[in-house]
Write a structure and sequence with these properties.
- The chain is 17% helix and 28% strand.
- It contains five helices and 14 strands.
- The longest helix has 15 residues.
Amino acid sequence: YVISSVVVDGLEQTSKPRDYTFNNISGNHSYFASFILRPIETHTVYINKSKLSSTQPADGTVTYDSGYSASQAYNWIMSKIHPSVVKNGAVNYFLDKSDLTKKLDGTSSKLDGTDGDVMVSIEPLWWKVTENSSSRLAIQISEAPISGGVTAHVFNGTVRRYLHMGMFNMTNGQAISIYSTQAPTSSSDYSHPWTNMTNDSARTAAENRGATYSTTTGLTWALYQNLVLFTSGSVNSQTTVGQDLTSGSKTAVS
């Protein structure tokens, strides 16, 4: 909900203040606030399909709806993402986005695992990809279910309040992928995805190679890539996000 009107002592406040202070009170006063449902936001970006065939689509920029800017898209998406500390599947507390050593209330956070895992908690979002034209794809993201859309937030038929993703994910030894047709036979095969494997098989393969493993779903990764797309304005997530993985550059993280 959002504030619709604020009336103080019978006078409607044009600024619709979230807070109001009565000074030097010597008699009765009245304060009334009314609320309306906030309109559901749905936004779309467009991609030139020819850029998706390139292995490094450096110029694969996206375009936004008329009247909607890249900065607005960034601010909207970031308002749905909250750094947090999660314990036993629930948010223990949220972190200050500008200083993770602080909680939202300004007190010190504990990031050593005692209070829980450091995560990124994402509010429910739905998305849909359609062909906007013979040369363009349209990717639509909404705060509510959209016809033909999918979400990563549904678990056992229930929409989760937050989808938690690990803020820090590192491997011990060779990392493996769980999407390949067969187990790797040499170090060069580690880059090949594995398919037709159960979670147990992937876990065993990872343990046999001295590596950790991740069971993040495809829908979660699709959501992650769409969020990168909206916030960066580029299909080249390798540059916008992945440089920290390949070259140790910290610029992408900021």
